[in-house]
Records
---
Amino acid sequence: MSAIDFLKKLPAAFDASAAAGTDAVVQFAISTPAHLVIKGGACEVVEGSAGNADVTLTMDDDDLVSLLKGDLNGMTAFMTGKLQLDGDMMLAQRMTSFFDAAKLA
């Protein structure tokens, strides 16, 4: 499964209560750029670049899928150079808790 196909599964796994009060745009700098818009208790994946991202995650497609599935620890990925962040690091750290990992397996 490509990273963009995996990202398109995120809205179905979104836990609005875990993301309560969060309005954010997360840019994924991957082979097919896409961004995640979290607003009003919902999330949407949009292909392309967002001009107003709160945080940008740059990483290989396979590593992104592993990170979002919970198979790759975000801090480990960051410390080993597999993940580069630009912007709100706290949002990036909280982001994986916004999704039900069982629905992404």
Note: The longest helix spans residues 61-69.
---
Amino acid sequence: MQRLRTRPQFQAVLASAPVAKTPHFALHRLVLDPAEGPNALFPAAGPWLGVLIPKRWARRAVTRNAIRRQIYATAPSGEGLPAAAHVVRLRGAFDPKQFVSARSDALKRAVRAELLALWSRVPAPAAPLAPRGHVA
């Protein structure tokens, strides 16, 4: 699995609507057409994964890093993730009154459970549409 690294890669994936949501996370997917071959944004075939955790929703770096690690750890590996570009985006803060510590075991368990729920809600990618044209 390749990781998204550049801003244009993230922008291309985030331009699509989320394919799955939980209270704190959203998953965006950009289906890559293998018939087109490698392109400038995604040169290698196979699944791509990126993580977007804004400071707005996780103020402390230790919290952002713990969430990021959980995302990469729970992502399906091998054939579990289709050949597409995916971005997991944090879309809401975890309640600081409930999770007092920035990296508590309770927070890790809550994040992991929600991410597993997110990955279980992901539908299979639709096949790219065949080009339309006049058939003789």
Note: The CA atoms of residues 15 and 28 lie 8 Å apart.
---
Amino acid sequence: MITYYDDRSVQVTSTAVRVDGRSYPLAELTTVWHRRGDRSWRVLAGRGAIGAALAGPLVAAVLGIALAVWLQRSAVVTIAIVGVSVLLGLAVGPLADFLFEHLDRSYARGSREMEMWAQWRGRPVRLLHTRDAMRFGQVYRAVQRAMEALPPAPGRAAPDRAARQPDRAARQNVIGSSGSRPSPRNRP
């Protein structure tokens, strides 16, 4: 038995997909597809707040320099204002690393709910529901690889037929028995 993915709640092996204690044998899965939900405005607002936090000290430094030039005070006062403004701008350096890390994690997690569905024993079953885009991609690819390794079986949709299924396939991304939909290649 080959393990393609394993974490605390999902395990994808060459024989089955186990999610939260439920097991779905791969031989009984005929089609696997995924759905993307709506964007989360809370996540997008958080990204905007991080961007504002990154830009704030830099904008304050530029405004300080502009203020020093506009006030036309003595050279000592102008240099003092410019110096404080530059130091304020430089203070964003250590903070920027921390903020960029949070911004990067935000993009890795994604801003949408992702669902993985399968046709199991003739009915649709939701295998996975998560907001973590990176984890979802890893699980989905593991299921795809496991399905590719299965020998062809009667009743399992061929890749061509899975891609041409009416209604559902038109709205969703589908994995057939080969694990992929036929598509044109970019390379010769």
Note: The beta strands are 3-6, 10-13, 16-19, 22-25, 29-39, 112-120, 123-130, 173-175.
